[in-house]
Each structure stands twice: as structure tokens, then as C-alpha cells.
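sry for the spam today, last one i promise. C-alpha cells for design, 265 residues
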């Protein structure tokens, strides 16, 4: 059976903080331009409700699937995600229902269980970058039984910060995936931008079979299956220059958002 494959960049934040997202049409146009017809973009909450706020903005007519919004005029899909800080590091969960938020600061195992209970697609994002769970998984492989995919390339992880991040974290993630795949053959690989700006959308992407948009359950099921299907040469892009520039901008924006306090006050 033939399945049309489309471009998917399923790990994006659109902005440094959720309140910076205020133009629905601009974001949708950027997705269409970068990912094309049928393109899928993940909008990921991080200790906020940016997906919920974005999906409620005025703009193009859309279909609310429950865990995603589809814009027929532009033929693009925005899927809800949440990046959850656990005690062992961050975990990316896709396909959660609108207004469902996983609890933070719990063990990785408890977070995985909560994600499964909510039918989430579980990704070990930037596993060997800052706040990744790669080192934990290398010593405690049991969670790999429940994880759907390893993020083998993360655009944000291109940035090297002395004493904070290491060089070659994406390469290490790829090697770890290839090793883990031997023992967990159902494990998928995952490529994304992890961008914090609209211009980073689609700077990295992977091709997956077009998902079923009948309802939230069929969407999640088909996305999970699509992420696990092996990709051939030419079915992914690992953008380096745009991702590096975006990562630097993200750090600068984070500094700008930190409220300055006078020493001793």
C-alpha cells in the first residue's frame, strides 16, 4: 500500500516564552512555506500553555481535532506537545489532549506512565544535550521499553557552550539510538528543529507517512506509527547553520527575559 510522505518538524516552541506568540496566521504561513502542503509542526508547551493560547488566537479557520489543529486553507497541521522536566531530565510527549498537562519534577518512570495513561507519544529529546536523559538511559535501559523514539538530531543541540554543553551531542544521540535499536527494534528515530522562533520552523525535518486526521486517537496512532518507520536517504534534513543561529538567539532572548536584580537586594 502506498502512503504519501510529508515533512514533519514536531518539536518547536515558536518563541522563547509562550506570551511572545501572538499571530496565528504568521505562524501557519511559516509552516506552509517551510514544510509545504500537508506539513506537520509540533507546538510544544514548556511549563506553560502556549499551545492552548496559540490554538485560540484569531486567524485562519481551523478544525480542532482535540490534540491538534488543522488549517484546511493552508493544508498544515499543528500538533500539541509538552516538554516535561523530570528528575532525570527532559521528556518530550506529543499528542496530548488540549488542556491536559503532565506533572513536572517526578521520576522519569512516573512521567512515562502518566504520558502513556494519556496516550502520549514519548520521545527522548536531545538525550545528551543539557537536561537530556541519555546518560540515565545508558545506565537504566528499562524505560526504553516504553519510549517511542530517540531524538537523534536536535537543532538546538548544535550550540556548544563551554562548561555547560558538549560538542557532538547529536552524534552521540545517533550512536546511542543505533545501539539501542538492536535490543528495542520498535524504537523510532526523531529529527526536529527545537526552534524558539518562526524562522527556525522546518530548518530540520523528517518525512513520515501522512497521518489520519479523523480524530485525536487516529492521529496519535498514525503519528506514532509514522515516527517508527525507517527513513531512506533524502527523507530528512538536519539543518545546521539556521539551527546554530537560532540557538544563539534563544540564549540571548533568555538572558533578556531574566529579570535583573540588584546585588544585595
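last one done:
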Amino acid at each position: 500500500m502506498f502512503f504519501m510522505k510529508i515533512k514533519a518538524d514536531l518539536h518547536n516552541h515558536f518563541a522563547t516564552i509562550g506570551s511572545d506568540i501572538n499571530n496565528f496566521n504568521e505562524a501557519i504561513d511559516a509552516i506552509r512555506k517551510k514544510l509545504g502542503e500537508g506539513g506537520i509542526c509540533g507546538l510544544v508547551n514548556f511549563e506553560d500553555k502556549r499551545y492552548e493560547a496559540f490554538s485560540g488566537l484569531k486567524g485562519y479557520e481551523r478544525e480542532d481535532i482535540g490534540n491538534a489543529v488543522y488549517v484546511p486553507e493552508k493544508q498544515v497541521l499543528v500538533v500539541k506537545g509538552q516538554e516535561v522536566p523530570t528528575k532525570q531530565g527532559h521528556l518530550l510527549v506529543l499528542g496530548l489532549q488540549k488542556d491536559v498537562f503532565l506533572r513536572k519534577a517526578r521520576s522519569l518512570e512516573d512521567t512515562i506512565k502518566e504520558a502513556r495513561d494519556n496516550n502520549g507519544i514519548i520521545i527522548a529529546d536531545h538525550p545528551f544535550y543539557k537536561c537530556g536523559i541519555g546518560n540515565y538511559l545508558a545506565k537504566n535501559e528499562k524505560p526504553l521499553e516504553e519510549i517511542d523514539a530517540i531524538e537523534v538530531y536536535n537543532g538546538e543541540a548544535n550550540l556548544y557552550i563551554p562548561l555547560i554543553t558538549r560538542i557532538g551531542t547529536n552524534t552521540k544521540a545517533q550512536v546511542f539510538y543505533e545501539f539501542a535499536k538492536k535490543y528495542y527494534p520498535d524504537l523510532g528515530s526523531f529529527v526536529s528543529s527545537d526552534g524558539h522562533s518562526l524562522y527556525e520552523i522546518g530548518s530540520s525535518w523528517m518525512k513520515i507517512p501522512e497521518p489520519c486526521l479523523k480524530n485525536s486517537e487516529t492521529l496519535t496512532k498514525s503519528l506514532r506509527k509514522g515516527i517508527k518507520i525507517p527513513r531512506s536517504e533524502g527523507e530528512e534534513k538536519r539543518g545546521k547553520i539556521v539551527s546554530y543561529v537560532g540557538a544563539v538567539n534563544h540564549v540571548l532572548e533568555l538572558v533578556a527575559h531574566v529579570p535583573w536584580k540588584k546585588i544585595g537586594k
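Residues 260-265 have pLDDT under 50 and may be disordered. ok im logging off now
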